[in-house]
């Protein structure tokens, strides 16, 4: 498997201060399934993803929160090679993601990224 399709620790936003900074200084885009805070990150060589999987937004069941995280990480992993430049993204899933399939989440994330101008123009 190509290195551009992997999802490693260096592709994750982990520190609380980075989440807060991105929320305050980044841009925001909405969709039916998620809220996306993002900012171009030219000082980095790779794009990163942070997830906010709260009980408030997804419900009390841990299985729902974990599944939403898996779906979003996989969608990010698949689309990352198409990014124009390195970008930091924080995704906050909404309740509507709970019954969705991977293909629906992929499509929704792709629409968010297109709206934000993050993806390379496609054919």
Please tell me about this protein's structure:
This protein is an alpha+beta fold and 123 residues long. It has a single domain (3-115), classed as Ribosomal Protein S5, domain 2 (2-Layer Sandwich), CATH 3.30.230.10. It contains 4 helices and 4 strands. The chain has helices at residues 16-25, 55-58, 62-79, 102-116; strands at residues 27-30, 34-40, 48-51, 87-93. The chain has a 4-stranded mixed beta sheet, sandwiched between helices. It is globular. The mean pLDDT is 90.
Keywords:
four-stranded mixed beta sheet, Ribosomal Protein S5, domain 2, 4 strands
Number of strands: 4
* Number of helices in the DSSP assignment: 4
What level of helicity do the residues show? 25-40%
Label the overall shape: globular
Cα end-to-end separation: 24 Å
Radius of gyration: 14 Å
Q: Tell me about the biggest sheet?
A: 4 strands, mixed
The average pLDDT score comes to 90
Strand order of the largest sheet: 1-2-4-3
CATH class: Alpha Beta
The stretches of 5 or more residues where confidence is low (pLDDT under 50) are none
CATH topology, which one? Ribosomal Protein S5, domain 2
What is the name of the CATH architecture? 2-Layer Sandwich
Share in β-strands: 15-25%
* Helix/strand class: alpha+beta
Outline the fold blueprint.
Elements: H1 16-25, E1 27-30, E2 34-40, E3 48-51, H2 55-58, H3 62-79, E4 87-93, H4 102-116
Parallel strand pairs: 3-4
Antiparallel strand pairs: 1-2, 2-4
Helix pairs in contact: 3-4
């Amino acid at each position: 498997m190509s290195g551009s399709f992997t999802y490693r620790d260096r592709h994750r936003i982990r520190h609380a201060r980075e989440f807060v900074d991105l929320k305050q200084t980044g841009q925001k885009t909405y969709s039916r399934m998620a809220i996306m805070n993002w900012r171009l990150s030219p000082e980095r060589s790779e794009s990163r993803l942070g997830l906010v999987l709260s009980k408030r937004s997804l419900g009390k069941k841990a299985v729902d929160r974990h599944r939403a995280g898996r779906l979003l990480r996989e969608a990010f992993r698949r689309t990352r090679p198409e990014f124009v430049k390195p970008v930091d993204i924080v995704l906050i899933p909404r309740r509507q993601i709970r019954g969705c399939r991977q293909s629906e989440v992929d499509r929704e994330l792709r629409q968010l990224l297109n709206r934000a101008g993050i993806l390379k123009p496609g054919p």
